[in-house]
């Protein structure tokens, strides 16, 4: 017997909107904060200190100042898409960047990149293929939720972290801008603020909630991901207020059983659906004109099954939106070779308005792609942490400022400038140049070195042999 027993022309009629309700005190705090302070709300000192401690445990002495300069240079490489990383340290005035050359040597950057560690040995979990970066991502997610779920429209979708190296986590998705990479699940608002995320570790792996105890392996993959991503929402929001929230997802996740279950716990949901996920069908003639609608409604659960003819039939399930009010949308017709306004159902319109948050976040991160590369899979995940922190900082800044909106490159440039120039000034870094002198003199480090040398440091106005020159300037 069909699930949809009752035909109802209008279905549910809800005026679905997205509400952003950051408190005024929080908005004032954000307006009073600098770009760097907003960035560090997400890429926080807790994450930095955790990385520093892990790196020191592995025998490399990484300081907070060095890590900040290192992150600043990574962000600066977003704007330098040339083929060679050596150009930053070139003496050619058209290629070189004195600020970066003065802040840190290229060898130091390569050394940090090879020695940096994101996890401890006790973090190792044989059931979790992403354990090497799991801890820092958990810290980032905690930071992302410090303002709560301040948007009522939430979308769940896939993201791809671009990577072409070897790892068991590598995925291929032909419809994504980055076809090869590491897949992530994301929970965002329509503007692209990332509330929660998780790394996909394979179909056979366990799906974890925030406390790593609730296993959803018996659920279909899409349904399990939706339930996992909503655990913190259900845990942190009062049950009486949970009905304000509306979830959106595509046909990979949606099914009638999932949406009915979400409704029983108070969450509204809307999503496109595949034909094999429903037990009935809304039959539309293949020659039907654009905007033709067919709908079925199940009284007991309140589930609407809507099919509308666009360039091809599009089916959608919703426990909140129906057909009315109709809204006109522009649609291009190949046969008429013109763009016409066609009335579409309310469910289609709200889905189009609020679904693309994860894709928008992914797009911002792709625009902020650093040039510095590495072969280990943990490196692009570390870069994604920086990219997501910049994107979230950008969103809360624009949400709190009603005037002119800030661009992602402006935010990245301000953070990079602070880390490279100001942090370098804190170390009193000066560019030291070595030259050959006509006369020999004793090495300046005469208490430990008895050599005579012609190597002279112009900036120090002193003579150094090669080993002592490197030793005297290694922290500069």
Automatic annotation (TrEMBL):
Segment forming the signal sequence: none
Give residue ranges for domain PiggyBac transposable element-derived protein. 36-393
| Pfam families according to UniProt | DDE_Tnp_1_7
Q: Which InterPro entries match?
A: PGBD
Quote the protein name from its UniProt record.
Answer: PiggyBac transposable element-derived protein domain-containing protein
Organism (species): Trichogramma kaykai
């Amino acid at each position: 017997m069909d699930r949809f027993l009752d035909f109802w022309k209008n279905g549910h009629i809800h005026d679905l909107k997205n509400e952003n309700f950051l408190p005024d005190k929080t908005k004032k705090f954000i307006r009073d904060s600098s770009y760097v302070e907003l960035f560090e709300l997400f890429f926080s000192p807790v994450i930095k200190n955790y990385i520093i401690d892990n790196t020191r445990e592995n025998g490399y002495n990484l300081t907070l100042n060095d890590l900040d300069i290192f992150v600043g240079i990574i962000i600066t490489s977003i704007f330098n898409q040339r083929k060679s990383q050596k150009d930053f340290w070139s003496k050619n005035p058209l290629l070189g960047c004195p600020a970066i050359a003065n802040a840190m040597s290229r060898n130091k950057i390569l050394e940090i990149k090879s020695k940096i560690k994101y996890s401890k040995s006790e973090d190792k979990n044989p059931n979790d293929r992403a354990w090497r970066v799991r801890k820092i991502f958990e810290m980032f997610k905690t930071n992302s939720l410090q303002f709560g779920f301040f948007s009522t429209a939430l979308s769940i979708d896939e993201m791809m972290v671009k990577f072409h190296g070897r790892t068991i986590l590598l995925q291929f998705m032909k419809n994504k801008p980055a076809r090869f990479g590491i897949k992530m699940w994301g929970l965002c608002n329509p503007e692209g603020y990332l509330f929660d995320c998780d790394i996909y570790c394979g179909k056979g792996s366990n799906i974890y909630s925030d406390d790593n105890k609730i296993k959803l392996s018996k659920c279909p993959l899409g349904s399990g991901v939706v339930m996992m991503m909503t655990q913190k929402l259900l845990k942190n929001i009062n049950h009486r207020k949970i009905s304000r929230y509306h979830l959106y997802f595509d046909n990979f996740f949606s099914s009638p059983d999932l949406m009915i279950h979400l409704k029983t716990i108070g969450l509204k949901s809307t999503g496109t659906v595949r034909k094999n996920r429903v037990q009935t069908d809304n039959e539309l003639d293949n020659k039907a004109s654009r905007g033709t609608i067919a709908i079925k409604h199940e009284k007991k659960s309140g589930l609407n099954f809507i099919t509308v003819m666009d360039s091809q039939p599009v089916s959608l399930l919703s426990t909140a939106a129906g057909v009315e009010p109709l809204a006109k949308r522009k649609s291009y017709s190949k046969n008429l070779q013109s763009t016409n306004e066609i009335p579409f159902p309310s469910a289609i319109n709200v889905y189009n308005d609020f679904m693309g948050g994860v894709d928008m976040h992914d797009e911002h991160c792709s625009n902020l792609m650093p040039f510095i590369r590495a072969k280990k899979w943990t490196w692009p995940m570390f870069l994604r942490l920086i990219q997501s922190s910049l994107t979230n900082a950008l969103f809360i800044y624009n949400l709190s400022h009603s005037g002119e909106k800030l661009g992602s490159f402006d935010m990245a440039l301000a953070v990079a400038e602070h880390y490279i120039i100001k942090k370098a000034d804190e170390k009193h870094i000066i560019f030291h140049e070595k030259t050959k002198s006509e006369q020999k003199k004793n090495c300046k480090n005469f208490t430990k070195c008895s050599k005579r040398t012609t190597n002279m440091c112009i900036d120090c106005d002193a003579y150094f042999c090669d080993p002592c020159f490197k030793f005297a300037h290694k922290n500069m």
